[in-house]
Design brief:
With 281 residues, this protein is of the alpha/beta class. The chain has one domain: Alpha-Beta Barrel (TIM Barrel), CATH 3.20.20.70. The protein is 37% helix and 15% strand. The protein has an eight-stranded mixed β-sheet. Strands 3-4 form a two-stranded parallel sheet. Helix 4 runs parallel beside helix 5, helix 5 runs parallel beside helix 6 and helix 9 runs parallel beside helix 10.
Length: 281
């Protein structure tokens, strides 16, 4: 029987969803907020803000935690970068987060589309901050270089969980490869801030999470997010533990003591939630 949701995990209902969705649908855009069934969608859409998901809404991987559809890849749309830029302008965003499904079918993993989207957003909103949340590109450096050369302010790649749990949580990924992506990003473009995130509640120990944090600091990762895993559907992995708020606070204190510039650690924290506030302070 599924565990009952504890009192400390309660999402807020908000108004303003309709207008944000109307803009997104008008430009034929997907968001990870919707596809991944984020519990904070009401709060974020009402601001409004959203994390744009490019390169389709179906993923070539099948991670145990994620509700994004795993299916055949969709065609890369030539005008998608301009549509993202127009929607961001219409929403009046001061900080734009761009992510994607994993596209292992593409030779560059979708890097050129990321770069084109960053350039388009920069052209429409020159004063806005831009964060990219990318897949691992199979560990290849050329796609990573393509994305970084487009000029994002923040490069984000999530490790998601501790190494021991990768076979269940991220069976087609590799922990060492994800850490190397962040290391390579720092080496290739030292002026771009780096960021990563993980979820807890899969059965990891406190010590394992702290070890991941140490690995991230060893490659000079600047920003960290830690949130509670919430099962999005019955096909996804069950929640093993609802981590208590005081443990999240300990993670934050530990991370700051390690030298992260900022740590967002709480049950409902998600990788892109309050991204502007984290980067701009």
């Amino acid at each position: 029987m599924p565990m009952r949701l504890p009192d400390w995990i309660r999402t807020k209902s908000s108004t303003g969803l309709h207008n944000t969705k109307q803009i997104l649908r008008g430009h034929r855009l997907s968001t990870v907020c919707e596809e991944a069934r984020c519990p904070n969608i009401g709060v974020c859409f009402s601001k409004p803000t959203a994390t744009f998901m490019i390169l389709g809404s179906s993923c070539t991987r099948n991670c145990g935690f994620c509700s994004v559809e795993s299916a055949g890849p969709q065609p890369v749309e030539e005008n998608e970068p301009q549509r993202v830029a127009m929607a961001a302008l219409e929403m009046g965003l001061k900080y734009v987060v761009i992510t994607s499904v994993t596209r292992d079918d593409l030779p560059d993993g979708g890097a050129v589309q990321f770069a084109r989207t960053v350039v388009a957003v920069r052209r429409s909103l020159p004063a806005a901050g831009i964060e990219v949340l990318t897949p691992d590109f199979g560990g290849a450096e050329d796609p990573l270089r393509t994305v970084l050369n487009s000029g994002p302010d923040v490069f984000n790649h999530n490790v998601e969980t501790v190494p021991r749990l990768y076979p269940a949580v991220r069976p087609q990924a590799d922990y060492g490869r994800s850490v190397r992506v962040l290391s390579n990003a720092r080496r290739l473009s030292s002026h771009v801030a780096t960021k990563s995130g993980l979820m807890v509640g899969f059965g990891e120990t406190f010590e394992e999470v702290v070890s991941v944090m140490a690995d991230l600091r060893s490659v000079a990762c600047d920003y960290l997010t830690i949130g509670q895993y919430l099962r999005p559907s019955k096909k996804n992995l069950p929640v093993v533990e609802y981590v208590k708020p005081e443990t999240f606070e300990k993670y934050k204190e530990t991370g700051l003591s390690m030298g992260f510039k900022s740590v967002a650690s709480a049950p409902l924290v998600r990788s892109s939630m309050n991204a502007k506030e984290m980067f701009l302070g």
